[in-house]
Amino acid sequence: MMIVDGLSTYHDKGIEAITESIRMTNIEKVKAHGLRLINGFGD
Question: What does pTM read for this prediction?
Answer without folding.
Answer: 0.85
